[in-house]
Amino acid sequence: MAIDFQQDIYELNLHYLMLLQRVAQTDIAEAAMRFGIDTKTAEAVCDSSIRELQTIASGVVTMMSARPLLQDLITRTPVDRADRLRAGAILRSISTSEC
Question: Is 43 in contact with 28 (CB distance < 8 Å)?
Answer without folding.
Answer: yes
